[in-house]
Design brief:
By secondary structure, this protein is an alpha/beta fold. It is built from eleven helices and eight strands.
Amino acid sequence: MRHPLLSGFSLCLLLALGGCQASLPPLPAWQSTEGRTHAELGHIVDLASGQVISPEQLVQRLAVAPRVLVGEKHDNPDHHALQLWLLRALQGQRTQGSLLLEMLQPEQQPLVDKVAGQLLPADLPKALAWQEGWDWQLYGPIVREALQQRISLLAANLAPGEMRQAYRQPASLSGERSNAPAVKAALLEQVRAGHCGMLPESQLPAMLAVQQQRDRRMAERLLAAPQPALLFAGAYHVRKDLGVPLHLSDLGAQGQSKVLLLAEVGEQVEAGQADYVWYTAAMPEQDYCAQLRQ
């Protein structure tokens, strides 16, 4: 079953202003199995007003922003299907300047540049030295779309060596917003929970430093990227109250950045965390911590 889209006007009211906008691609069917009868399934909420908006309205509002940050749950196929849809929808409204991925590291950039604008190789993951930790079945269609549409595809993550250096010798970051005590405390708790409380307390500050260095790198890459720039990353990385938007502010970013969180039904997303939330079907709940403790 496909999501309903609002029907368009038979006559476009914008003709006098230069013509109609391109129509949007059809929305994908839900793939995840949980929450398909949830009342919020498919709702897109403007968090500033609390109003539910249509996919068309979302695209119109995002299309005018120089930077759009989209937060995902890495293993939810619906999030990646909607990212691909959004990439195509925005490209249909205006030329997309760049797509940045948390899943790409700096040493992969020359490999990406080598295949860009060419007939894509049969084994694209091998050509890109794609990391096994990121499921190619989920990310491959997005990567292919960007390359085929000649959208500048950019690495947004740290290199492994940079991560090790940030862990061994945590460096102080400049900027009041990203260094606010409340921000660091919330991120520290997220790091603790993300490792199931199994990390020694002595290691948590170093892990926090890596997290914030990654956010700072994403912000730097966004500022250097051709606009309009689009970033796909984990939800915590793009949150307005914790992640990349704080670093953009500390770096003096000009123009608006818009944040869209893709969230599974039943999750609570607050206004301070994003500009918009799109509620999707959910993956079956798994106790990853129990698996780690075995």
